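Quick review question:
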């Protein structure tokens, strides 16, 4: 049932009750009122009354009660996501204002795809830390699908990795493309597949395949092309979520894999080859998605500029770099 106009007006003023909203976040983290009250150092009846008054103020229920604790309603989930986002924007603003008085400080919460985490970001974070030692940087390994919701609700500030350029983002997020990655069948340098005709896709099914990340992702793209031409496809013999382990197995075994070509340029120490095959080349963009409020954050600028320099050295000339 639609909420009344009066309720909507109350929801518009929800941040008049910011302390109560912060308590709601603690309840969500703890999963029940008893644990949340202990963390907040207040009595459970006082916390229960705080939630009830907030629900009355907003004109809608935030929680569903059950024997083992509480669960957010759909309205409650929206309130929590907006609260996290607003609180994070406030923190970023405080950091920016503090920078004017005391130099760069605060927290930068980043997530990135494995190649970024392992090779591109570490030198960039070291460079930023040297220039801004008071800045605390958190780095998580995460894929695009998991990072986007956390960017929306304020749990993350930055995601680095592959993304869909056409996907709409909230107005407080923006994206910058660093390079375009081309997918290729990959093998070791002396793999027997390299002696086969590029048009003979059947031969690709004679060898074991390694799936990096999961069977739905990169490998399924390759198998869709092969099946369209041959009527056959193949499942992976090995599934691997660690890029170094995947590349070692490709180099040491008879495995084929379907990977972005930039892996061979960014990740050092491997003698791998792209296999010439007659099938469409899949591409995707790789770069950063970040909160617009970070555009004046010097530590973030240093991270981005350092990665940009690294990519220009490793990639072909003409790749698009970073600029704010």
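Suggested answer, residue by residue:
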């Amino acid at each position: 049932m639609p909420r009344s106009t009066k309720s909507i007006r109350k929801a518009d003023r929800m941040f008049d009750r910011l302390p109560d909203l912060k308590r709601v976040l603690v309840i969500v983290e703890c999963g029940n009122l008893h644990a949340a009250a202990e963390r907040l150092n207040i009595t459970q009846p006082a916390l229960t009354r705080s939630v009830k008054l907030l629900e009355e103020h907003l004109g809608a229920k935030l929680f569903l009660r059950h024997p083992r604790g509480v669960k957010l309603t759909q309205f409650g989930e929206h309130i929590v996501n907006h609260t996290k986002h607003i609180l994070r924007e406030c923190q970023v603003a405080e950091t920016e204002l503090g920078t004017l008085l005391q130099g760069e400080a605060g927290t930068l919460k980043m997530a990135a795809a494995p190649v970024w985490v392992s090779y591109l970001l570490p030198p960039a974070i070291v460079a930023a830390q040297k220039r801004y030692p008071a800045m605390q940087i958190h780095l998580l390994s995460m894929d695009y699908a998991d990072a986007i919701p956390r960017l929306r609700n304020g749990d993350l500030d930055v995601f680095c990795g592959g993304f869909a350029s056409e996907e709409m983002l909230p107005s407080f997020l923006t994206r910058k493309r660093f390079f375009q990655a081309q997918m290729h069948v990959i093998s070791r340098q002396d793999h027997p597949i390299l002696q086969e005709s590029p048009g003979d896709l059947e031969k690709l099914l004679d060898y074991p395949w390694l799936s990096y990340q999961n069977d739905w992702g990169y490998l399924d793209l390759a198998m869709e092309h092969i099946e369209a031409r041959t009527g056959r496809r193949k499942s992976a013999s090995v599934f691997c979520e660690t890029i170094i382990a995947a590349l070692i197995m490709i180099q040491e075994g008879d495995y084929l894999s379907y990977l972005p070509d930039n892996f061979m340029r960014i990740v050092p120490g491997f003698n791998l080859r792209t296999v010439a095959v007659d099938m469409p080349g899949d591409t995707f963009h790789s770069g950063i998605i970040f909160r617009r409020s970070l555009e004046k954050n010097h530590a973030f600028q240093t991270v981005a500029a350092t990665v940009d320099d690294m990519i220009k050295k490793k990639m072909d000339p003409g790749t698009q770099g970073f600029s704010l």
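Why it works: The CA atoms of residues 33 and 159 lie 33 Å apart. Confidence is low (pLDDT under 50) at residues 317-324.
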